[in-house]
Amino acid sequence: MAQFTIRVPSELGDKGLVPFFRGWRWHANPGDEVVIDISACEFMAPWSLTLFTAYALWLGDARGADVRIRVDPGKPAGRNAIQAGLFELLNTPRPAGTLGTNEFTITPLTQIRTSQDIPRFVTGVAKLLDLTNEEVQGAVSYALTELLRNVVQHSKSPVGGLAMAQFFPRTGLVEIVVADRGIGVLGALRPRYPELNSDLAALKFALLPHVSGTFGMGEYGSMQNNAGLGLFFIREIATRAGGGFFLGSGKALVDLRGKADGTAGKMYVESETSGWHGTFAMLQLRKDAIEDFAGLLAVCRGLAAEARRDDAQVALDFVEEIPESEDIEVIRVHDFNEDVDEAARIRDDVITPRLMSKRLVVLDFEGIRFATQSFVHALMYRLIRDIPEARAYLTLARATNASKEAVRAVAAYARTAGKTPVVREDRSE
Questions:
Q1: Cβ(227)–Cβ(308) under 8 Å?
Q2: Beta bridge partners of 253
Q3: Who contacts 285 (Cβ-Cβ below 8 Å, separation ≥6)?
Q4: Rounded to 5 degrees, what are φ and ψ at 226?
Q5: Is the distance from CB of 83 to CB of 97 less than 8 angstroms?
């Protein structure tokens, strides 16, 4: 059996991401037995631990390699890897030794394979990070949900996605990392946008509002169901709150950083080697800079609407309490919160027939602090676009300001799409 050892650099902090991406070579077929040696590494930032773990999973699951991890529990990088659950995830024995403590809160490395995995992980992150500020919780949960949904819907990764988060109390910095070993951004977008001819062009395009790829067979929706605002919103949230957003895929990396004046510094990087097979994203949020999450979403929605050059307004019936009537069908959205597949099923099987029969439907958002635009698209886009009766017979109850902003974004986009002929989905398959 051929053994191959990969020695991780001595330090991989946040400042090392760009040079690492530019020069590191990921081996596609390193050997039958692979040792990833972290023992000489003093510190691994969340992005580096996530990338090496995703790589190890891919080597084992997709390449059939016997992967082993070598760490020094006495060093911060070793403690970090152990506390993040690296060994449990790879089903390898956890090393003995005293762990000590770290100066941050860390969430476990977690595989995300289906949309049903997302809400549970996001809830766990919010609890483990112990973020008492509700606005910060909203921004973290929103961004993490959107990043993970991109992995599930677009990546076609054989090992799913891998996610983790860390909170550094001394600096107030929250870092979220998501990585996959799938087809990459270019592979996801090119079927619909054949003019894209490079990883860098695909990344630049993906960060624009109203850009999305075609989902795979059996997955939720298509371009007509998704406004493609997820990455755009994350970019704006991060940079406007003084944080940062890194998006890497193939041989290209985009580095976006928020400045003190509210603008974003931007840098494009191209790998000199093979790049990263798949896509990864790192989001940095500064806890004390997020004062009004709903306000941030409103700004994002305004920018997206401006990009569409559409001033159409859709009448939306928001109420604080559910109207009292025996003839109202109440849909409790919290029961399937952020499950886009279930939302699409309820939309088609329950809500649509009732609206077309001119019967009242109330979508009750009680218990949901925010709803992501992707989830709202699954639930409401076709209702607003295709069913004229929706304006008169659809009501939304007890939605927070953040959820209302997501609904307004969907409604504006659906109204715009409704002005042009719509290509219906072929659901025969």
A1: no
A2: 248, 269
A3: 136, 139, 140, 143, 173, 174, 176, 237, 238, 241, 243
A4: -140, 125
A5: no
Query: Which contacts (CB < 8 Å, 24+ apart) does range 384-388 have?
Result: 384/314, 384/410, 384/411, 384/414, 384/415, 384/418, 385/224, 385/414, 385/415, 385/417, 385/418, 385/422, 386/418, 386/422, 387/352, 387/355, 387/356
pTM for this entry: 0.74
Give the per-residue pLDDT at 204. 76
What are the start-end ranges of the H helices in 347-421? 352-356, 373-386, 390-393, 401-417
pLDDT category, 35, cuts 50, 70, 90?
A: very high
The tens digit of pLDDT for each residue in 184-194 reads 999 988 887 78
Integer Cα distance of 395 and 318 in angstroms = 6
pLDDT bin (cut points 50, 70, 90) of residue 325 is low
Comparing 39-53, 161-175, 212-226, 328-342, the range with the smallest average pLDDT is: 212-226
Residues 6+ apart with CB under 8 A from 353: none
- Euclidean distance between CA atoms 340 and 332, whole angstroms: 14
Map tokens 């019967």 to a residue: 359
Kindly report which listed range (133-137, 283-287, 306-310) carries the lowest average pLDDT score. Answer: 306-310
- In degrees to the nearest 10, what's the CA dihedral of 162, 167, 173, 175? 0
What confidence tens digit (pLDDT) does each residue in 375-401 have? 999 999 999 889 887 877 888 989 987
Q: What is the DSSP string of 242-305?
A: T-EEEEEEETEEEEEEE-TTS-EEEEEEE-SSS-EEEEEEEEEEEGGG-S-HHHHHHHHHHHHH
